[in-house]
Amino acid sequence: MNEKDLATPYQGAFVGKTHHFALRVYFEDTDTAGIVYYANYLRFMERARSDMLRCVGIDQRAAMDSGEGVYAVAEAHIKYRSPAKLDDDLRILSQVREVRAASCVIHQRVMRGDELLAEANVTAAFLSPEGRPKRQPRAWTQTFERLRGEE
């Protein structure tokens, strides 16, 4: 492995219509008992969603910089099932479930091996620079429609 490879951040990938994103639980993610703080699951899911968009060619930064718009979480329903702990290797599995004109719903699962630790349905709304709901770019909704599915 060369130095350039070591400077390249990890990127997840799709297996079928499910995006897989792996991460490790670090000390900063936990409380003094070594258990992941509940709000950090939302951070893990955010990283996975951002990576999923990047993997399908959606450049959120360019859309934001050009004034096109930006995604923001409008709603999140999360169910915690079992705690993640310090040094656990986790996978965040993300699937597009619904595509609407100005938003999409993404189902996400936090897994430790085959064990489901938490799952959520997250509604991401596309907003104008003024913070108002706005139609997503057509190419993006077409991409989401191709990815839409359920296991």
TrEMBL record:
Keywords on record: Hydrolase
InterPro entries: 4-hydroxybenzoyl-CoA_TE (IPR050563), HotDog_dom_sf (IPR029069), Tol-Pal_acyl-CoA_thioesterase (IPR014166), YbgC/YbaW (IPR006684)
Ranges in coiled-coil conformation: none
Pfam families attached to this UniProt entry: 4HBT_2 (PF13279)
GO-annotated molecular function: fatty acyl-CoA hydrolase activity
Family classification: Belongs to the 4-hydroxybenzoyl-CoA thioesterase family.
Stored NCBIfam families: thio_ybgC (TIGR02799), YbgC/FadM family acyl-CoA thioesterase (TIGR00051)
UniProt-recorded name of the protein: Tol-pal system-associated acyl-CoA thioesterase
Species lineage: Bacteria, Pseudomonadati, Pseudomonadota, Alphaproteobacteria, Sphingomonadales
